[in-house]
Specification:
Blueprint lengths: L1 H11 L6 H4 L6 E2 L13 E4 L4 E4 L8 E5 L4 E15 L2 E11 L2 E6 L3 E3 L1
Parallel strand pairs: 1-6
Antiparallel strand pairs: 2-5, 2-8, 3-4, 5-6, 6-7
Organism: Micromonospora rubida
Protein name: SH3 domain-containing protein
Keywords: Signal
Amino acid sequence: MTLFFALVTLLAAPAAASAQEATPAPVTAVEDISVNSSICGTGRVASIATNLPIRSTPYTTGSLITTAQKGYQYDCDATVTGGWVTACGVYSNLWVRIVFSSQYGYTYAACLNDV
């Protein structure tokens, strides 16, 4: 019985919180371009997401140029690191530079597939 009460007490006690514990670890993280270098490997990508934002910079603070729908295809010429975002179930700072209408835009690599 003593072991039971010790276990209940241990489980019921509040855990000490630290700054690191307050931020949950991502399930999937891509930090290095080489990890996901196949994105934009063909020079053309397609969106796997609905309302995928295409921004002026590879950061969520970049102005919104347009949004892509699932299946939309774009030419691309580079993968770049930018701001960290959770998109399409992946926490990453890898963005793809796409080319359209004679301008560049940036969107989340995790939400694109090569075509």
